[in-house]
Every structure is written in C-alpha cells, then in structure tokens.
Design a protein that fits this description.
- With about 350 residues, the protein is an all-alpha fold.
- It has helices spanning about 10-20, 25-30, 35-45, 50-65, 75-80, 90-100, 105-115, 120-125, 130-140, 145-160, 170-185, 185-195, 205-210, 215-225, 250-260, 275-280, 290-300, 305-315, 320-339; strands spanning about 230-235, 240-245.
- It has a two-stranded antiparallel sheet with strand order 1-2.
Length: about 350
C-alpha cells in the first residue's frame, strides 16, 4: 500500500522565518510582552518580501492558539502595508485561520487576509469569494465585536465579492431568489445596496434604494422568502432545523424588507401591497432568524393601517421569544403615535 504524506502548508513558511531569525526565536517572541514584539518590528522590516509574507502566515497560524488580545498589531500592520508577492493558496490559508481565532484577534487577521487578497489579480481574488463569504458568516457569531468593528470588517470582506455573489444559493430563499435576480436588469447594484442596510437604515439609504429598486422584483423577492424547500442549519446548540433564510443571506433579506418602505403608494406594487409577505416572514421565527424577523416587524410599523393590522395579529400569536413579543408591542405603540 502506498503511503500518503500530508505536508503542513505552514511548514515552509515557518522554516523560512526560522532561517531568517534563528530556530524558535520568533515562536518565543510572538508571545512576549509589547517591548519584545515592538523591537522585532525593526528586524522584520529588513526581511525580504518572501520572508515577510511568511511572517504573516506564521503569525496567523500562531494566533489560532492565542486566547487573549495579541500585542503585535503594529508589527502585522507594517507587514500589511508591504506589496508582498501573495499567491491565492497563501491568502486562502489566512482566511482558513479566521474561524479558529479568539474574537479579540479576528480584526487583525481579517485586515491581513483582505489586504493580501487585494494584492492578487482579479482571477485570484475571485477564487476567494467562498472564503470571504464564510468569513462574513463567521463575524455574525462574534458577539464580543462592537457593531462599528463588525461593520468595518464586513466592508473589507464584502469588497472581495462581486455583487452577484452576495446572494447565496444554500437556503430556501436563495434558491428561489437567484433565478429572479439572474433575469432582472440592474439587479446586482440593488442587491449590494440591500446588503449594506443598517438595522434601522438612514434616509440616505432609503433614497438610494428607491432609485435602484424595481417594484415587481421587490415583491417577487419578498414572496420568495418562504417559497421553495428550506435547508437545515445548525443553531447555537448544534441542533438542526429548517431555515428559509440562512446566515449567508440574512443581511440581504433584512435590506430587502426595509426596501419595501421605498416602494411608494401604488395600490398593486406599492409599500402597503407588500404587507402580506412581510407579515408571513415575521411569523417564521427561527426559520428565518431573529435578525430577519425583527426587521419585518419594524417594517410593518411603517406600512400604514395594513401594517398595523398585521402587528396586532402578531401580538395575538407571537409569545416567544419574549424579546420579539416586546418588539411587537413597542412597534404598535410607536405606530399608534404616528397615526
């Protein structure tokens, strides 16, 4: 029987670093206090490009076992500023490390990985789209990241995705939505704009959405939220349950729901005509995720009397989770104040 030897892809980079500094020197210093790592910056600055590239890979790999904030951010930033000869396989390694990191070190490596990806040619960057999408999904589970930090990191990762890549075909909504988007004119910029929606979008976001949207497409995409066959996704406890909207598409669907507010007053394709599918989305609970449910509830509060009637129905039927029930009550109070 032939023996298969699996090579550690980090090993050549570690060997290059050890040859430059001496065996084990960097492995010891990387965990040292600020002064030692700070002094290392001058040494690393003298390294050639290939050695400098290897330093980035070795740092990323070592951070996988570091469970507190690393003190070498300035060293890594120095390396990120250099125009290093990155190859797709090396950049893919950096993306592969991200999921293993402590939350406090995720920003360091996301910046390093996206900076390295930016040095590749278009084909190389395109090959990294699945990894960038996985990193975007990983950010959503990083509860200790601030909203501002998560927004900055998402922008870096999103820049690696073509607009068409922002909708993922791995859930029920994605499979129903992709054929609609492929046949629609000008859909890609609209989808990219949807993905950028904040939890409560700004007036500028709504103005841009109104300029980009095509009313019939918006209604078709809203109706598609619960169409098709849902996919099984694992929840935080590791249990699998059917989902129409999985984590990869949650931000786009949230923006889609908010875009209904920009549809205008047409009786057939206007905002109030979108109440039915938005109401249905709000009832799906875990099958679309809390982020999507809460957006649907907030949007209903802005859709006049039909939206208010839908909120009253939700108040009668939604008891769990308590946070969602409280949101319905709060939106009804606000809706009454606006009427």
């Amino acid at each position: 029987m032939a023996h298969v030897i699996t090579l550690d892809p980090v090993a050549p980079h570690q060997a290059r670093v050890d040859e430059f500094l001496g065996p084990g020197v960097f492995r010891k210093t990387i965990w040292d206090y600020d002064d030692a790592v700070g002094r290392m910056r001058g040494t690393v600055a003298a390294a050639g490009d290939e050695v400098a590239l290897s330093f980035v890979v070795v740092i990323g790999n070592m951070l996988r076992s570091w469970r507190t904030s690393w003190c070498g951010a300035a060293l890594l930033a120095d390396l990120n500023r250099r125009a290093l000869p990155w190859r797709p396989a090396d950049v893919a390694m950096l993306f592969g490390f991200i999921g293993d990191l402590d939350d406090r070190n995720v920003p360091l490596l996301v910046r390093a990985a996206t900076g390295a990806a930016g040095r590749l040619d278009p084909a190389g960057r395109g090959s990294l789209a699945p990894l960038a999408r996985a990193a975007l999904a990983d950010l959503d589970r990083r509860e200790s990241l601030t909203s501002a930090e998560r927004t900055r990191l998402r922008a870096l990762l999103r820049a690696l995705l073509a607009d068409a890549d922002l909708v993922h075909g791995g859930d029920g909504w994605g499979r129903a939505a992709l054929p609609l988007l492929r046949t629609a004119t000008g859909a890609a910029p609209f989808v990219a704009h949807l993905e950028r929606a904040a939890p409560t979008p700004t007036a500028a976001w709504f103005a841009r959405a109104a300029a980009l949207l095509e009313p019939l497409l918006v209604h078709d995409l809203l109706a598609a939220v619960a169409d098709g066959d849902p996919s099984d996704f694992a929840d935080a406890a590791g249990d699998f349950a059917p989902r129409w909207v999985g984590p990869d598409n949650a931000l786009v669907v949230r923006g889609l729901l908010w875009s209904a507010c920009a549809l205008g007053a047409d009786p057939v394709l206007g905002a109030e005509a979108a109440v039915a599918p938005i109401h249905r989305t709000a009832t799906l609970g875990r099958a679309v995720g809390e982020r999507v449910v809460h957006a649907a509830i907030a949007v209903l509060a802005r859709l006049g009397q039909p939206g208010t009637a839908a909120l009253h129905d939700l108040q009668r039927t939604v008891r769990q989770p308590p946070r969602t029930a409280r949101l319905v009550a709060r939106m009804l109070t606000g809706s009454a104040g606006r009427s």
